[in-house]
Amino acid sequence: MFAGTPAPALPALERLLASRHEVVAVLTRPDARAGRGRASASSPVAELARAHGLPVLTPARPNDPEFVAELAQYRADCCAVVAYGALLKPDLLAVPRHGWVNLHFSLLPAWRGAAPVQASIAAGDEITGATTFLIEPALDSGPVYGVVTERISPTDTAGQLLGRLAVSGAGLLESTMDGIEDGALVAVPQSADGVSTAPKITVEQARIRWELPAHAIDRHIRAMTPEPGAWTTIGDSRVKVGPIGIAADEQLPPGAIVVRKRDVLVGTGTSAIALNEVQPQGKKLMNAADWARGVRWDAEVTAQ
Q1: Boundaries of each Formyl transferase C-terminal domain copy (predicted)?
Q2: 106 annotated ligand binder
Q3: Backbone angles phi, psi at 93, to 5 degrees
Q4: What is the rounded average pLDDT for all residues in the chain?
């Protein structure tokens, strides 16, 4: 069985479909409304599974006894999980004889939770990776089967880093399934040291705090790109901010904005930063200088 929902789970499902293992069905979250028209849409994992003719299971409450019984009918030896998006309780975890094996995008026990890639960039980590582990009721605390490591570039966004981890992690997940089937892998308990958490990011947490040093703002913006998007308010408008440059020789008060012919500078707690791309509310992503030329600036306007 494969359980997953968003696009970063696709490389793992594709890898398992091409492997020696048989994927008997796919478990994913129910259709959700998306886009401006708010039309109901299947998850990326559901679409790929249907393209391969696989049964697609979309329970609203996967821990209900009725679904637990339905899942048992597939007689899966193991359930591979990548970003499924729902809490799994003991009765469901007990169905496959080899349990549920999760691919998590951090080096556990660091960054347990829903946003490990964003947390690692925001914290300034230089190395991260992916981990396969046996799911138990506590959050991301189960014993570990294997890891792969990945260097974080100084310019990485969360989207770029997650894209690489999704691919390298897919290979790790396949080798973990191989090792479980062969009896060659034994899960090792996680260390009690170095535990950190990365809960789901709220909209307010994505807001840019201009009083922070420029390097911290740079990491924050890259961590929030593309989702949920770092943002600030300028006047009465909310503006999303894409990855920025640091103007090391320029200093402005935090949040102060200077519009020049070819760039837009914003003050921080240290050096000013130069905006590259912005997305005003209700509009598309655009060049910051082009955007600034179309705005009527109040002399007192600041980013907040």
Answers
A1: 200-295
A2: yes
A3: -65, -25
A4: 94
Spacing of C-alpha 9 from chain mean position: 11
Dist. CA 21–CA 154, nearest whole Å: 38
Q: Burial, 292: exposed, middle or buried (Cβ in 10 Å; 0-12, 13-18, 19+)? A: buried
Residues 6+ apart with CB under 8 A from 11: 166, 167, 169, 170
pLDDT digits (tens, 9 = 90+) for 259-302: 888 889 999 999 999 999 999 988 899 999 888 887 776 667 78
- Residue spans in the chain of domains classed CATH 3.40.50.170: 2-198
107 is in an annotated binding site: yes
Q: What are 120-175's pLDDT values in tens digits?
A: 999 999 999 999 999 999 999 999 999 999 999 999 999 999 999 999 999 999 99
Tell me where in the chain the CATH 3.10.25.10 domain(s) lie.
203-294
Q: How many CA atoms lie within 13 A of 149 on its CB side?
A: 4
Q: What is the pLDDT of residues 235-253, one digit of tens each?
A: 888 999 999 999 988 999 9
For domain 2-198, is the CATH number 3.40.50.170?
yes
Instruction: Give the 3-state secondary structure of 142-208.
Output: CCEEEEEEEECCCCCCHHHHHHHHHHHHHHHHHHHHHHHHHCCCCCECCCCCCCCECCCCCCHHHEC
Q: To which H or E segment does residue 71 belong?
A: helix 65-72
What does residue 127 show for φ and ψ, rounded to 5 degrees? -130, 135
Q: Is the dihedral of CA 50, 52, 55, 56 positive or negative?
A: negative
Reading the block at residue 198, the tokens are 């990365």
CA dist 101 and 149 (Å) reads 18
Tokens standing for residue 15 = 């890898």
